[in-house]
Amino acid sequence: MSNRHLLVWIEGTVIAALAMVLEYLPHAVGPLNISFGIIPLAVFSLRRGWKAGVTSGLVWGLLDLFLRGFGSGGFLNPLQGLIEYPIAFAVVGLIGVGAGPVRHGLANQQHARVFGYALSATLLGVLLKYFMHFVAGVIYWGSYAPKGMSPVLYSLVANGGSAILNLVLSGVVVGLLLVTAPQLFAPKNAQPA
């Protein structure tokens, strides 16, 4: 394993741990949940690409499953646990599909394009995460819907609101970081994503 790959693995592990630590911050706004861990994973994915991002997200999802899921009642059965933890958290790393265009745009001073690529990729990752939660909500959590409300509507409201909240938060923070610290998105030892 080359030094570059080892550096990316270490960086990804630190990001997964940071994302997990951020999950312990109070993160409920009424029935909606803010996932602060999406922010460092978004930056890492835009920095290192989708493969590294998905791997780091997978580690974060496993950490969340073992540290919070089993103890909080968020684990109902193995398939639901797989969908809502490792898979849902790993797909956030697909934000990294925007890594190459973001680095290219930064190198060429194309600020509007950089924002477009970064925000589009962030939209993709956040929506995929909450789509996984939506599917699990319909299948596994639908019985908790208020009487007369369909499980689909219940899951859409619960997960859709959280998705919007997380998309706005992560989009704003990623945008601010692109302006104030663009070097975070263009490491010196980067290979094409």
Automatic annotation (TrEMBL):
Entry's transmembrane regions: 5-22, 28-46, 58-76, 82-102, 114-141, 153-179
Keywords: Membrane, Transmembrane, Transmembrane helix
Pfam families given in the database record: Thia_YuaJ
Recorded superkingdom: Bacteria
Keyword Transmembrane helix: yes
Protein name: Energy-coupled thiamine transporter ThiT
